[in-house]
Amino acid sequence: MMAAGGGPAGIGMTSARTRDRLIERLREHGISDAEVLERIRSVPRHLFVDEALASRAYEDTALPIGFGQTISQPYVVAAMTEALIAGRELPLERVLEIGTGCGYQSAVLAPFARKIVSIERIGSLARRARLRLRELKCHHVSVRHGDGLQGWAQLAPYDGILVAAAPDRVPAALLEQLAEGGRLIMPVGRGGVQRLVRVTYRDGRYREERLADVSFVPMLEGVTP
User: Fold this and answer.
1) Are strands 116-120 and 63-66 parallel, antiparallel or unpaired?
2) pLDDT tens for residues 123-174?
3) At 15, is the secondary structure helix, strand, or coil?
4) For residue 87, how many other CB atoms are within 10 A of its CB?
5) Which end of the chain is more exposed for a tag (fewer CB within 10 A), N or C?
6) SS3 category, 35
7) Neighbouring residues of 28: CB distance < 8 A, sequence distance ≥ 6
8) Is 55 known to be catalytic?
């Protein structure tokens, strides 16, 4: 199923044993897709965090990346990716990601789509992620500085939309940008815990499933430099 854009293995500063422990933990928590697990193993997560936190990069935990944002814990990244691609035999043609952050989710998702448009409202994070993804040869991932609540209608419709921030409710603009058979994976709700949902658009109807309880930063309107 994997497409171009796999990038370097990135074992680098961490031992295979460290990564194996992370993968085993994800399996214990229900992640079963072999390709998703291998992608989590191979993406160099330590490159997406500050050097001072690099020794914790392969713990199954969220870590700060500045600007009040975090890099999502590997389990959540794996679960959202697995929910997006479940049952698919071919790479998705076009995926919209909302909330690029440091670019880690984009890098994990890269082999499973032919084109990824990733929107980040914080300009400094968008520029940093763009450089990192370019270094990892994820050339089919396009990072845009914009308001994620509006999606990116210019390239719609999308086979998949993945959102890494939590609004009060699913934004209508994102639903309208789903292709027939497309899936939207996102957290919804306020407070410390939100519900992770998968919305599938088929035959003019939206079907929503609750997948798990998660904790994400709130989804905010507008952009910052």
Assistant:
1) unpaired
2) 999 999 999 999 999 999 999 999 999 999 999 999 999 999 999 999 999 9
3) coil
4) 5
5) C
6) helix
7) none
8) no
Across 41-50, b (16+ Cβ under 10 Å) vs e yields: bbbbbbbbbe
Q: Which residue among 42, 55, 72, 124 is the active-site one?
A: 72
* Side chain identity, residue 47: L
Tell me the pairing of strands 178-188 and 158-163: parallel
Q: What is the pLDDT of residue 14?
A: 61
CATH fold label, 16-214: Rossmann fold (3.40.50)
The number of residues in the chain equals 225
For residue 209, the cross-strand partners are 198
Q: In terms of pTM, does the model score above 0.90?
A: yes
Residues 6 or more apart whose CB falls under 8 angstroms from that of 84 comprise: 92, 95, 109, 112, 160, 162, 183, 185, 198
Domain boundaries defined on the chain: 16-214
**Peptide bond between residue 157 and the one before it cis (omega within 30 degrees of 0):** yes
Query: In this structure, are residues 35 and 2 in contact, taking their beta carbons and an 8 Å threshold?
Result: yes
The Cβ of residue 166 has, within 10 Å, a number of other Cβ atoms equal to 22
Per-residue pLDDT tens over the stretch 3-37? 544 444 444 456 788 999 999 999 999 999 999 99
Owner of token pair 């084109």: 115
**How far, in Å, CA of 73 to CA of 45, rounded?**
10
Pairing verdict, β 69-71 and 205-214 = unpaired
CA 122 to the chain's CA centroid: 16
Residue whose C-alpha is closest to residue 161's, from 144, 169, 146, 173: 173
Cα–Cα dist 94/134, whole Å: 19
